[in-house]
Fold this protein.
Amino acid sequence: MTDKAQDKLIIEGVSKTFTGKERQVVALAEASFSVKPSEFVTILGPSGCGKSTILKIVAGLEAPTSGRVLLDGREITEPGRDRGMVFQTYTLFPWLTVQENIEFGLDVAGKTKQERKEVSEHYIEKIGLRGFESFFPRDLSGGMKQRVAIARALANDPEVLLMDEPFGALDAQTRTVMQELLLDVWDESHKTILFVTHDVDEAVFIGDTIYVMTARPGQIKARIDVGLPDQRTFDLKLSEEFMQIKRQVMGLIREEAWKAANTNT
Ligand SMILES: Nc1ncnc2c1ncn2[C@@H]1O[C@H](COP(=O)(O)OP(=O)(O)O)[C@@H](O)[C@H]1O
Ligand SMILES: [Mg+2]
């Protein structure tokens, strides 16, 4: 656990202050943690604690005010193909079909039509959208759109997948299906995943490791090694071991939610 050379990602004392006209917002205050190759990390914390900011810094879309993020030992300074992102709101290109959306990054990277088709067919199968290849985003349900967004990110074969509340806008049933689908995809590809959520059940169900953040300014409050079996099906959510972890995490979150409520009101 302390062998830094083996870490895929190192978030090292990252602080971020947003400076507006009226006031400054300290979003992150020396947040530090690391992620192993193929680890599935979930980040949990109250609204406004800096979760999205961390992902944006790892994505290279925002620069930290101080501290740094290392990917395979190299400092991140800009976006790159080694990192793929999936956001909560649907970011598909409305004028492209399902297949064209999935192939978009491959097209940009100069892959041939045949190469693109092989990859997109694989993921269309994997995410259960066979028969929908030529549909446009407007004709898909929310869950289907997010499947396409995940497939599009994976098609580029990134080393790290950054997911910012990707199932946050979905209903509870669809959300459960999507969690199992993502675990299935992860089982095959073993990407390193950084997954932000404010849903405790979701964090415990899909993560290997949970980092709980403090209320703003965000720091890492606790690390929880989930240690549940790799085979995760819905009945696991009803098990005693699941409930135990959930209780522990909810206790940590509750403290922070109270702090946030007391400073914001
Ligand atoms: N571009 C920005 N300019 C000013 N303030 C921002 C900006 N982005 C985020 N913030 C502020 O930083 C804090 C953390 O935001 P964010 O990372 O989006 O939180 P979370 O994703 O945990 O809800 C919030 O108070 C938010 O209002
Ligand atoms: Mg957010």
The first helix runs from residue 51 to 59. The pocket of adenosine-5'-diphosphate (ligand 1) is lined by residues 18, 20, 25, 27, 45, 47-53, 216 (CB under 6 Å). The chain has seven helices and ten strands. The helical segments are 51-59, 98-108, 113-126, 142-155, 172-189, 200-206, 240-264.
